[in-house]
Amino acid sequence: MLSISQLAKKAETTIDTIRFYEKKGLLLPKMKAINNYRYYDQGSLDKLSFILNCRSLGISIKDIESLCEELVMWFR
Questions:
Q1: What are the angstrom distances between the C-alpha of 13 and each of 23, 73, 76?
Q2: Domains of the chain (ranges plus CATH)?
Q3: Based on C-alpha coordinates, what's the Rg of the chain?
Q4: Does the pTM exceed 0.85?
Q5: Average pLDDT across the chain, whole number
Q6: Other CB atoms closer than 10 Å to residue 6's CB: what's the count?
């Protein structure tokens, strides 16, 4: 499990960016501890990397949301 700071470092982004995507519902912590620390797994890192790559290509957040929904439906 990765803390939010470890996730940010591995994804080469900021903690604020991760929190932003959490607020948008695009990224959720795998586990939240009693002290409210967020913990993430490899899947979270993969999803964050996907989101960041989409944003670097100029894809809107709304379109990323749609893509994520489609991927979830496709992989069920």
A1: 16, 28, 29
A2: 2-74 (1.10.1660.10)
A3: 12
A4: yes
A5: 92
A6: 13
